[in-house]
């Protein structure tokens, strides 16, 4: 697997972790959700942007 593919897989694992923790935190609710909910959403958006930029770079370089 190419380096870009490994990076994408690692970013996807991190994205799923942030997404699951955000859903669990939202289900629990309370002060912790108020404190961390928005930060987790921002982290999810940044991870999605990094994945898209990595995929774009891979496609532009020929996928090697």
| Count of helical regions | 2
Oligomer: single chain
Spans of at least 5 consecutive residues whose pLDDT stays below 50 are: none
- Indicate the overall shape: elongated
The proportion of residues forming helix, as a percent range, comes to over 70%
Q: C-alpha Rg, in Å?
A: 15 Å
User: In terms of structural class, how would the helical and strand content be classed?
Assistant: mainly alpha
Per DSSP, what share of the residues sits in E-state strands of 2 or more residues? under 5%
Biggest sheet: strands, sense, closure? none
Output the keywords.
64 residues; mainly alpha
Descriptive notes:
The chain has about 60 residues and is mainly α. The protein has one domain (about 5-60). About 90% of the residues lie in helices and about 0% in strands. It contains two helices and no strands. The chain has helices at about 5-30, 30-60. The longest helix is centred in the C-terminal third of the chain and has 30 residues, at about 30-60. The protein is elongated. The protein starts with a helix and ends with a helix.
């Amino acid at each position: 697997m190419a380096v870009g593919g490994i990076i994408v897989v690692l970013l996807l694992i991190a994205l799923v972790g942030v997404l699951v923790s955000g859903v669990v935190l939202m289900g629990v609710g309370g002060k912790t959700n108020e404190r961390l909910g928005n930060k987790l959403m921002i982290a999810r958006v940044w991870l999605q942007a990094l994945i898209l930029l990595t995929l774009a770079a891979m496609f532009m370089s020929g996928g090697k």
